[in-house]
């Protein structure tokens, strides 16, 4: 299923992230795609709050992976912008994060497309200059049954 929401500012994007974080379940992978400065990290901060994370979420651009374990479920926050070879993901131990008891969220997920599980939840954020500097379109695509609550909302 697919759901599209437009936001008019960072707090709205944060709220959508939070809503998804509240519904997230162990073993899920969320792939975030969108240009630099589009709001992937803002979305992630909301998502983390939705999961019950209280530690401050920072962008893991230089570390690739940041783990948060104080929420309802562990959150593995990846920023794979700097990944050049998928072997680097093996070294980080991504499999335990994608197929374990936590939720993984990946910024710049298109960089590691071949590693994403089939039932990954896709989130694409894009700007539209014609709609103003703070406008964002957020498109969420999930396989049937993965986010049943969203499916109901989209009806
Ligand atoms: P990314 O992680 O995609 O590089 P960030 O989340 O770090 O982007 O930054 C997004 C920037 O865009 C922030 O400065 C934020 O205030 C701004 N912004 C403006 N409008 C929006 C919106 N509707 N949604 C999200 N961020 C927005
Ligand atoms: Mg970011």
Provide a short characterization of the protein structure.
The chain has helices at 10-23, 40-51, 87-92, 94-98, 148-154; strands at residues 2-7, 29-33, 65-68, 75-79, 103-107, 121-126, 136-141.
What is the strand content? 15-25%
Give the overall silhouette.
Answer: globular
| Total strand segments | 7
Specify Rg, calculated over alpha carbons: 15 Å
Mean pLDDT: 94
Biggest sheet layout = 7 strands, mixed
Word description of this protein:
- The longest helix is centred in the first third of the chain and has 14 residues, at 10-23.
- Helices cover 28% and strands 24% of the residues.
- The N and C termini lie close together (10 Å).
- The chain has a seven-stranded mixed sheet.
- It has helices at 10-23, 40-51, 87-92, 94-98, 148-154, and strands at 2-7, 29-33, 65-68, 75-79, 103-107, 121-126, 136-141.
- The protein binds adenosine-5'-diphosphate and magnesium ion (MG).
- Magnesium ion (MG) binds at residues 40-41, 59, 79, 107.
- Magnesium ion is lined by residues 40-41, 59, 79, 107.
List the keywords.
globular; binds adenosine-5'-diphosphate; 5 helices; 155 residues; alpha/beta; 24% strand; seven-stranded mixed β-sheet; 28% helix; binds magnesium ion
List the helices and strands and how they pair.
Elements: E1 2-7, H1 10-23, E2 29-33, H2 40-51, E3 65-68, E4 75-79, H3 87-92, H4 94-98, E5 103-107, E6 121-126, E7 136-141, H5 148-154
Parallel strand pairs: 2-5, 2-6, 4-5
Antiparallel strand pairs: 1-7, 3-4, 6-7
Helix pairs in contact: 1-2
The chain binds adenosine-5'-diphosphate (ADP) and magnesium ion.
């Amino acid at each position: 299923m697919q759901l599209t929401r437009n936001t008019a500012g960072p707090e709205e994007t944060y709220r959508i992230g939070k809503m998804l974080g509240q519904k997230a379940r162990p073993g899920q992978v969320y792939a975030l795609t969108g240009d630099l400065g589009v709001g992937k990290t803002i979305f992630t901060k909301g998502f983390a709050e939705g999961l019950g994370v209280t530690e401050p979420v920072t962008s893991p651009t230089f570390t690739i992976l940041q783990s948060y374990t104080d929420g309802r479920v562990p959150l593995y926050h990846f920023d794979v912008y700097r990944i050049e070879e998928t072997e680097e993901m093996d070294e980080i131990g991504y499999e335990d994060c994608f197929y374990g008891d936590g939720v993984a969220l990946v910024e710049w997920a298109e960089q590691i497309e071949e590693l994403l599980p089939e039932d990954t939840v896709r989130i694409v954020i894009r700007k539209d200059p014609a709609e103003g500097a703070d406008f964002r379109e957020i498109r969420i695509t999930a396989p049937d049954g993965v986010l049943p609550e969203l499916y109901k909302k989209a009806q």
